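Q: A reviewer asked whether we had any structural model of the full assembly, not just the individual parts. We don't, so I'm hoping you can provide one. Inputs are below.
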Amino acid sequence: MKNVLHFMITSAAALLLLGTAHAADGVDAIKQRGTLIVGVKADYKPFGFRDPAGNVVGIEPDLAADVAKRLGVKLELVSVAASNRIEFLQQGKIDLLIATMSDRPERRKVVQVIEPLYYSDYVNVLINKKAGIKDWADLKGKPVCATSGAWYNKDVARTYGVEIVAFDGSEKPLFAMKQGNCIGYLYDQTFLQGKLLDDEWKADYDLPLKGVLPAPWMIAVALGNSSLQKLLEDTTKDWMKTGFIVAEEKKWGITPTEYSLSMHEQYKDK
Amino acid sequence: MQAIANWFQELYEKTGLNFSVFYDAYDWGRYVDGLKMTLLLSVTTILLSLVIGAAGALIQSGPSRIARAMVNAFVVVFRNTPPLVQLFFFYFGLGTLMPAIESGGMRIPLLNNTQWAIISLSLFAGAFNVEIFRSGIEAVPRTTVEAAEALGYTRIKAYIHVVLPLAIRVCLPALNNNLVNLLKTTTLAYAIAVPETLYAVKQIWSESQNVLEMMIVLLATYGILVGVLVWLMHRWERAMHIPGYGR
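A: Here is a predicted structure for the entire assembly that you could use as a starting point for your response.
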């Protein structure tokens, strides 16, 4: 009995070790495996979402496909969420993480960031077309719905004199806006752009203002994976040189951001 | 005032306890606005719910069966459902169904969120008050009511001049309980973005990351507000005390 138990424990441990050692081992391991495993979002239109057939598509899956093409391997997409994406990378379940992740100092300590940063989100207001708002100054004194706890609510309220009406989550503010309790919804620009792709919102709402408070996003690989890091750095610079990201934005129906355009300008002639 | 602000600023620098509401003018402003809104909500809902309770109890002891059934239905609906659900129903549900004004081409709802909060909370507390007043009314001896009838009082006049004064003295402790509950229940209005104290403090702590300190301030605030209410109600109880009646 003791021997059987001992055998079971050691074999379980061996299996576990085998299990963890399959991803995040550098470019050579990926080429040997024949597949690049990338973590992307599956619920964030248009960066990573499911099409009617159930496949994960969007800007970030396309970026991942481009990296896989450069490596000459197949692509495997793993859908991640904000709560588990870093853990997946650390555990080796994915080689590469392209999942709308904001650049934060705490995150840089636990994963390897790829520089130059590939994208940037902004803060914007989804506004009722009938309100006739053309500039941030026009919002002064007007009620704007927002999500409670967002880091930019106070900045926007103070700088532009907006009256913030905050609710929990991101469904209630949209609902309150539809009812007419506020003229717009203050949130991350990329989320609002995704909403505008739906017919429900396209008809009566728009993003007439320019985005403010840029919050760059980061692609990440596991700490110590220097070969993959180097490849991604070169790939990102190439994307900026060829304007691939700007083209992707246009392909998926959003206005190219200031950041993408300026990075393309910067790297165009390098 | 500046001395207090400076003391709290020093406290933050020395110990890391961040009571930003005391030394930051913007946070203090929002907190005070929140307090004013809480006071507004409390006073209006307390007064409205007392009126609803008294009127409901009057109808409940009346002759009309339909009216009694309606009051009982009202009490059942508003006591059996959670107040937060009622608030959401009024604001998000009824708010959409109600007619709206068109201003500059945009839909402006008829009642704003503060008004909905007052309506919803008054109805909620009013339902409890109907039952509380009923307990007081039933404690008035039947003989006293018959004597009032014999003296020529109409039912409503007897209610106002004879029954209600006695009933209130009996049910005052239970009524106090409910009004204290109502004052604390006004915090639920934060869920429909009414800028009362909890809403203001929540915004402050999510920006300054001083959750513990702001929680302490919030608890102390409501402790003091409820303490003032209870003191007022006790003063009222003592003022209304009939020597020899009860204890």
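A: Points you may want to mention in the reply: The first strand of chain B starts at residue 100 and ends at 103. The two ends of chain B are 46 Å apart (CA to CA).
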